[in-house]
Amino acid sequence: MNTLPASADEATPLHLPIPQEAFDWYDEYAHGVIDRRTFMNRLATLSAAGFAMPVLLEALMPNYANAEQVSFNDPDIKARYVNFPSPQGHGEGRGYLVVPTKLEGKGATVLVVHENRGLNPYIADVARRLAKAGFVAFAPDALHPVGGYPGNDDEGRRLQGSLDRAKIEQDFIAAAKFLKTHELGTGRLGAVGFCFGGYIVNLLAAAVPDTLNAGVPFYGSPAAKEIRKNIKAPLLIQLAELDTRINESWPEYEADLRAAGVKYTMHMYPGCNHGFHNDSTGRYDEQNAALAWERTLAFFREHLG
User: Fold this and answer.
1) Last residue of a domain, which of 61, 89, 112?
2) Taking Cα atoms as reference points, which of 46, 39, 4 lies closest to residue 25?
3) DSSP structure class, residue 17
4) What is the CATH number of the domain that holds 264?
5) Residue 5 forms part of a structural domain
6) In the predicted model, is pLDDT for residue 109 greater than 50?
7) Which three-class secondary structure state does DSSP give residue 274?
8) Does residue 66 sit within a domain?
9) What is the predicted pLDDT for the residue at 36?
10) pLDDT of 173-232, one tens digit each?
11) Residues near 159 by beta carbon (within 8 Å), at least 6 away in sequence
12) Which residues, at least 6 apart from 242, have a Cβ–Cβ distance to it below 8 Å?
């Protein structure tokens, strides 16, 4: 159960469960369904129930100091930023490449795809976690054409929304092809993505089926219906029980995967919100996030070698 942080002020009882509607409103705000003013006005209605606004914001908004599980100074990894060509997208892309220090020869590669706000510290840490586990990980930043992730999610969300979505998709397709043929890679490519990134993983599986060898979309919407029949790669689909917005698309998507003969597994994590893997916000569910990540690593090891 999600509770308010121990730093809550005296006006709010400690460990009072955060109302589900607060998470739902944050999800709507984070995905552009409502604007910030509407989000704040809705949160204000909870004050009568004893919730202080600063405490709610502390619980709901990301705190990236909590998201570092693998330090960029970890001796087991080496990280750097590299550019790649994207002729059908914005011309050039840029991403965070993380390699195991003790890599002998070549390694399996995994593309890491961020949410709808650019390459924030949480996603960079996910790339480091993969490298720590032995994979060559690459996390592109869709915001490279406008200067890169700006340091806060609100501005990142605005910047990503200002870019041509079709070109962003082409940038990630170019990133997948770049990583697939990277000199450090074995030619076996996996992809993991979160929210918008989950959609991109589904898109890669359908749009460039000969490029992707294994996909793990976390709470991502499916690719366009007319191209789902192209999917070849096995998929490990991670969904959150309380994420009704994304879950509404699952029955139809599952039917299309079955019709296409795709090997897939879907896990529905009970009591979890959209974003439950993101350890920088109050939506984080430590136990289920750990289980989902354990399954992700096992899936990549099975299908990528």
Assistant:
1) 61
2) 39
3) B
4) 3.40.50.1820
5) no
6) yes
7) coil
8) no
9) 86
10) 999 999 999 999 999 999 999 999 999 999 999 999 999 999 999 999 999 999 999 999
11) 118, 143, 146, 150
12) 20, 23, 271, 272, 273, 274
What stretches of 48-126 adopt beta strand conformation (E)?
Answer: 77-86, 91-100, 107-113
φ, ψ at 228 (rounded to 5°): -65, -25
Return the higher-pLDDT residue of 14 and 278.
278
Average pLDDT value for residue range 105-131: 97
> Could you tell me which residues come within 8 angstroms of residue 56 by beta carbon, excluding any fewer than 6 positions away?
4, 18, 22, 43, 46
Contact of 153 with 62, CB cutoff 8 Å: yes
Answer yes or no: do 48 and 143 share one domain.
no
pTM of the shown model = 0.89
Amino acid at 66: N
Q: Assess whether 39 and 125 both reside in one domain.
A: no
Across the chain, the runs of DSSP E, i.e. the strands, are 77-86, 91-100, 107-113, 136-140, 185-194, 214-218, 235-240, 264-269
What pLDDT was estimated at residue 97?
A: 98
Q: Band of the pLDDT at 48, cuts 50, 70, 90?
A: low
- Strand, coil or helix: what is 187? strand
Tokens of 113: 């795809």
Same domain, 30 and 152: no
Rounded to the nearest 5 degrees, what angle is found at the Cα of 268, between the Cα atoms of 262 and 270? 175
3-state helix, strand, coil in the chain (%, to 5): 40, 20, 40
Q: How many domains does the chain have?
A: 2
